[in-house]
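Continuing the series of single-chain predictions for the mutant panel. This is the parent chain; the variants come on the following pages.
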Amino acid sequence: MASNEQSTLAYRYRLRAEAESKRRRELRFTSGLILAPVLLMGFYVAFLAAPRYQAEARFSVRSGASSVAGATGPASLLATGANVSSVGGFVDGWAVSDFLVSRDCMHLLDRKIGLRRYLAHAGWDPVHRLSPDASDEQLYQAYLASIDVSFNLMEQIDVMEVRAFSPQDAEAVSNGLLDIAQGFVNDMDDKGVADSMQVGTRALAVAEKKDTEARDRLTRWRVEHGNLDPVAEASMLQTLVLQLEGELNTADISLAKIRSLGNPDHPMLQPTQAQVAALTQLLSATHRRLSGAGETEAGQLNSYEALKNALDFSDQNLNAARQNYQQAFTDTERLRRYLGVVVHPVSERQPSNPRVIVLLLEALAFGFVLAGAGHFLLNFMRATGWYKRNANVAVDA
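Parent structure:
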């Protein structure tokens, strides 16, 4: 009986020792998975990481259409007349931010300042190692790792952070990017102005062409007919008709008075008759010039007034086209954008990268994730019997 109790106690002690040993192994396994990334990151930070300096610049895209000074963000959207420029500020700010992290911008910067010599690093740092003859893809990845651009929606300001291996390099890259951003805004302006003025320019050209054609047709008519202004000439002839009719009436009255005397030998009879005949002939000729058959003033007025009306109409269209063009030009000039630098890039004098605390915390978090994945895999192997089968095989061997 005592022997059985001793066996039972020994068996329990053995199970407890095995459980304690298993717990210690799992603790060492978990601690190793957690601490391994931290130790590797600490080794990287202490012996391999290259120090980098950061320069920050802040800028915004402004236009002359801002009617409320100092109103930005949502406040400017509530301001009368500022809606268009505020929405434009959102769009332009995002556009510049996206452009600065594009391959096109990287190529422009490389041609401008020689980007490779600022990002090339042949040290032991495996993260930021870049040879001077690196490919465009490698250069672009290094470029993305060296620049951060964000758009502050509330203040409508772009924040650009540039990291390089020396303060001078960080400032040089930042200033180069600011110049390229200004050129990008100018290009957007030029294209926008060209698109806005395209319709007005085309309408003005068409109006000028039609006005010139109408003026040429009127000039040819005047040369062919030898008449500068048929309207003025017709008005003169009408005045002449009224004058001749008045003189003819006076002469008729005088002739009637002379004939009433019954003296055929009256000395004023023949001269008065001759005057009446001459006035009648002249009046008849004047009437024929105005509205008779053939090349008369009435016939000329018909074609002349058609040409003159066409010229007047084309002149009005030309004036309207010029006014619309001038208004469009004024509007586009008022909406022109420019890059306003709020904070110029000045690099820090002490390296802020690598960020030791942040990197170690990230490594620690990764270690916890790795430990969780390791425990999950170990429990899965135990549940499927794979671990026990392989352990038995090892024992038999």
